[in-house]
Amino acid sequence: MRSPRVPVVGLAVAAGIGLAAGGVLVIWRGWSRKGRLQRLRERVDTAFRSIAALPGWSCADACVLLSGGLDSAIVAEVGAQVLGLRTAFTVVCTEDATDLPFAVASSIAAGLQHVVLRIPLQELLRRQLPLVVRATQSFDPMSVRNDLAIAHALSEAAARGFRCAATGDGADELLGGYSFTHRLPPGRWAYSRNRMAQEMTFGSTGIGQQLGMCVASPFTQAGVVKACLALSKDDCVRELPDGSLQGKVPLRELFPRVTSAGRRKDPIEVGCGTTALSRPGFFDELVDDSTFAVEAAFVLEQHGVEIRDKEHLVYYRAFREVFPNGLVPGKPRHGSDPCPKCGYELSSKTQIFCVTCGHYDPQMRAHKRK
């Protein structure tokens, strides 16, 4: 998750919802579910027009990053005409990547030229890892695996003359796309969704800036965020006949003819295949066991950064090459709210996940209060 931060409390009033005890957002009962969904549909349509009107947006030079997931398929199939989209880019790195058939179907439905970018993982790392680290200021493995594909798609789009790119960023955070939230009680689900809305960021924005491109998503536009915050867990998550739970129900119902309306949520790394980077043994040719043990110990002692595995070490090496001595513009170390594993400042006072090194601890704030 990497996109412009949105103040949830400020949006709560505008969306027609109130704050219960403990800061949990609750829906005012004046709106029917049909009315809330209709408002969301109107806001999505408005968001497409707002993006097309951005000073940096050119309908003559616009493309879409198309994974074939529900969100990017909506952008391609519903927003193509308004945004001036004419080409879709899809990245495929391994044979077990899941995106390609869905992306093909979506590009055909949208009438877009489809550029499938096939690239081996080692080549992807060589070409895009420095750009990802520079743009995101991160060596978090989960984020890097996702952003490598984004960086490759945007780099290839820029090389072909595209100045603008549309994405589907934001829908998962706002509408219950992540399976780890599906079993939460409604109040906890709302709290988790609202925190994600407040803290979410997306690598596509920074990578686009590095390449001189305007990157935008309808789901991060303020009006769409407001409409999403008026929806409850019951609006967003449903049980399927097999007993599993499915998120982003409002989009599935509002856009039933979109080709991926029934597709499950696959993380970017699964869809494009970069998840293979996390498999044991992938980095053995780059880092043998003895080298890892020595270097990880050195980094901990000399840099104060805890390295978890070989993949983490490779990304950290790139981070130190891009940012000599670990000095990152606008990102202090050992300040008032540092990550306990890398020392870089956490991105907010409620953050329990470090966007720099990837450390996650649900009890991080409790530990810090002790």
Automatic annotation (TrEMBL):
What protein name does the entry list?
A: Asparagine synthetase domain-containing protein
Q: Known InterPro entries for this protein?
A: Asn_synthase, Asn_Synthetase, Rossmann-like_a/b/a_fold
Per UniProt, residues of the Asparagine synthetase domain are 62-193
Annotated Pfam families: Asn_synthase
**Keyword Membrane appears in the UniProt entry:** yes
Give me any GO biological process, just one.
asparagine biosynthetic process
Q: Which residues form the signal peptide?
A: none
Which terms does the record give in the GO molecular function aspect? asparagine synthase (glutamine-hydrolyzing) activity; ATP binding
According to the record, the segments passing through the membrane are 6-31
Source domain of life: Eukaryota
Any single Gene Ontology cellular-component annotation = cytosol
